[in-house]
Amino acid sequence: RAGLVAIVGRPNVGKSTLLNALLEQKVSITSKKPQTTRHRILGILTEGPVQAVFVDTPGLHIEEQRAINRFMNRAASSALADVEMVIFVVEGTHWTEDDEMVLTKIRQAQKVPVVLAINKVDQVKDKAELLPHIQKLAADFSFERVMPISASKGEHVDELRQFVIDSLPECEHF
Ligand code: GDP
Ligand code: MG
User: G1: where is this region (predicted)?
Assistant: First the structure.
């Protein structure tokens, strides 16, 4: 099994921290250099015969999004449609307009399975407060899976990694 997995989310939600946690001691390569015009390879997870290539989708960067026109929006969503899976990272503590913008892009990329990773749950003092937040998001979009995690504390990161590995399609060529 192999495939591209896009990690998306507004700045500061913990995407880089999550990537490092997912790749922990399982890194084949990591590179911050541009690899293709549509995706930037961030790292490769190799687990037996399975390879997950984590990518960045340049058109999804919020900083660029502010000035982006409709055409660019479409380019970003088609880049998302090129991946096997999307990990949408949000914070358990708050939801902003920027998260909403990222979700809009994801919504435009149809048929891509999306895992909602609700990060920084270690900062959520009252877990009951998290529930309405999760319910609101889950009511808004049909996520493949909703996973509360803590990337920095490593909570539920193993489950997320396993879910990604299990969900990648079988393929001969990659
Ligand atoms: P990115 O901009 O989405 O790549 O976010 P970063 O990975 O750079 O993380 C932004 C900040 O959030 C950093 O200070 C991280 O240490 C912190 N952070 C990331 N994950 C967690 C988490 O699970 N819990 C807590 N408390 N902080 C986190
Ligand atoms: Mg980052």
Answer: 9-16
